[in-house]
Specification:
about 425 residues, alpha/beta, Adenylosuccinate Synthetase, Chain A, domain 1, Adenylosuccinate Synthetase, subunit A, domain 2, Adenylosuccinate Synthetase, Chain A, domain 3, 3 domains, four-stranded mixed beta sheet, globular, binds inosinic acid
């Protein structure tokens, strides 16, 4: 039975939600393995649009058990809003499971993220959802986990301990108002009752599922180039979106993975600060942004837009070990007379096909492009490779050749059925 991972191959926002939704049709477990409510997935089906930040979108399939695994960080205020919105849309959360080891993003994490981002120097352009401070506390071993939340005394002790450290920073470094531990304990004890029915030991749940040969689909958030170690540090998120992160975040051993899907847009986008060699700041960029509706699901920010960067995509394929690619938003590129793809960087006086992850060095790289002929007609009604214009097929072929991974899914619109299965 497949144990699949779906990974963002670029800087996030690759429309992974749609690919997960398609692959979830044959999964029993759909598992979120990293990140928190910085992510945003939109799934459109039967004329309804569902928005997800924390809850795996697989919950929309009645046969699926949707799991928030221990590698995820969870903001319970945000969760509570998301859960209420989904229930209102008629989605049952009975099949939701939340790991005991999930770390909680607390109000002081969000506050610290906001205060840090308000400084001009060193801004990362985060989503201000408290992700970095949560993972920092996890590594510092003062974090609060779901397991702590379930016992009032334990929760109280953890909250007091962490605020002894975080309140002085809030007050003295940023000049902001410290948080009241008693109020936090009270509020979070309330959330404990809300999530208790869903809490379980996720590694054991998934190991049992493996023994019983149940199909598992692991859903990444963000993208490879935002990985804490393999992305463009410091302009990264604080978790591990890469495929190896799926093993860390769930307890599933690397040799159990059978499929690693890379999801890439037919062009590139980035949100927040950081180098972006193929960025377009001209009319072409505006046109792609408008056609692709490139505005963040979580923050509403306009995304930076650029040509497809094959150097970065090949790097992602090698770091993750992609066994298949899903190319999304191909329809956005209709109507351009020619399309550029970046096949090398000019760096320190020479050309290279190797991605440069060091942010200052990447900022100095110049893209080397090849130009491919575009196609005029809209392709959102195409349902097979043969129906695509020859130049669109040639564009896809160029990606496959360069990256060395077969393209098995092509998305030509937001709806489930606007998909070509190769
Ligand atoms: P953080 O994850 O909020 O700490 O933000 C760190 C970096 O990751 C910033 O550049 C964000 O814009 C980016 N980022 C975080 N989540 C997403 C996402 O879901 N899509 C795209 N970029 C993201």
């Amino acid at each position: 039975m497949p144990v699949s991972v779906v990974v963002g191959a670029q800087w996030g926002d690759e429309a992974k939600g749609k690919i997960v939704d398609l692959l979830a049709q044959r999964a029993r477990y759909v598992v979120r393995y990293a990140g928190g409510s910085n992510a945003g997935h939109t799934v459109c089906t039967n004329g309804t649009t569902y928005k997800f930040h924390l809850i795996p979108s697989g919950i929309l399939h009645p046969h699926v058990i949707a799991v928030i695994a221990d590698g995820v960080v969870m903001d319970l205020r945000a969760f509570s809003i998301e859960a209420a919105a989904l229930r209102e849309q008629g989605v049952s959360l009975d099949r939701l499971r939340i790991g005991l080891g999930v770390h909680l993003t607390m109000p002081y994490h969000r506050l610290l993220d906001e205060l840090e981002e308000a400084q001009l120097e060193g801004r990362i352009g985060t989503t201000k959802r408290g992700i970095g401070p949560t993972y920092a506390d996890k590594a510092w071993r003062i974090g609060i986990r779901v397991a702590d939340l379930l016992e009032r005394d334990r929760l109280a002790a953890r909250v007091r301990r962490v605020l002894q450290r975080r309140n002085p920073t809030i007050e003295r470094v940023y000049g902001a108002k410290p948080l009241d531990p008693d109020a936090l304990i009270e509020e979070y004890w309330g959330y404990a009752e809300q999530i208790r029915p869903y809490v379980c030991d996720v590694p054991h749940l998934l190991l049992r599922a493996l023994e019983q040969d149940e199909p598992i689909l692991m859903e990444g958030a963000q993208g490879t180039l935002l990985d804490l170690d393999y992305g463009t540090y410091p302009y990264v998120t604080s978790s591990h979106p890469v495929a190896a992160g799926a093993c860390l975040g769930t307890g599933i051993a690397p040799n159990r993975l059978t499929e690693i899907w890379g999801v890439a847009k037919a062009y590139t986008t980035r949100v927040g600060e950081g180098p972006f060699p193929t960025e377009l700041t001209d009319d072409t960029g505006d046109r792609i942004r408008n056609r692709g509706r490139e505005y963040g699901t979580t923050t509403g920010r306009a995304r930076r837009v650029g040509w497809l960067d094959l150097v970065a995509l090949r790097y992602a394929a090698r770091i993750n070990g992609f066994t298949a690619l899903a190319v999304t938003l191909l329809d956005v590129l209709s109507g351009f007379p020619t399309l550029k793809v970046c096949v090398a960087y000019r760096h320190a006086g020479r050309e290279t096909r190797e991605f440069v992850a060091d942010a200052p060095a990447l900022a100095r790289c110049e893209p080397v492009y090849v130009e491919l002929p575009g196609w005029e007609q809209e392709i959102d009604r195409c349902r097979s490779l043969e129906e695509l214009p020859a130049n669109a097929r040639a564009y896809l072929h160029c990606i496959e050749e360069y990256v060395g991974v077969p393209i098995k899914l092509i998305s030509v619109g937001a709806q489930r059925e606007q998909t070509i299965v190769v």
